[in-house]
Amino acid sequence: MSITVFIRYQLDPFKRAQFEEYSKRWLTIIPKCGGELIGYFMPHEGTNNIAFALISFESLAAYEAYRARLRQDAEGMANFRFAEEHKFILAEERTFLRKVVL
């Protein structure tokens, strides 16, 4: 059974450009560490402080292995530090989803 991690970000609306830079960095880091990146989604119109990311994995075990690889990845850790230093992410929520099939 595959799972998709749905990440909801609450952003500082005045720092959306920094979040976009952060997101673009993940476009190569996530696949390198084993995630199937569906995409990052930025506010366009309407609510200006909410963004999303979707990443799929074969299983929860594959997700855990990905997280371990991510903690060892220099680019990934640098991106986490970038977010902490600039404080553009105010809150982050993760939901683990499975696809409904017949």
TrEMBL record:
Domain NIPSNAP: 6-100
Source domain of life: Bacteria
InterPro entries per UniProt: Dimeric_a/b-barrel, NIPSNAP
Pfam families membership: NIPSNAP
Name of the featured protein: NIPSNAP family protein
The species this protein was found in: Bradyrhizobium hipponense
Lineage: Bacteria, Pseudomonadati, Pseudomonadota, Alphaproteobacteria, Hyphomicrobiales
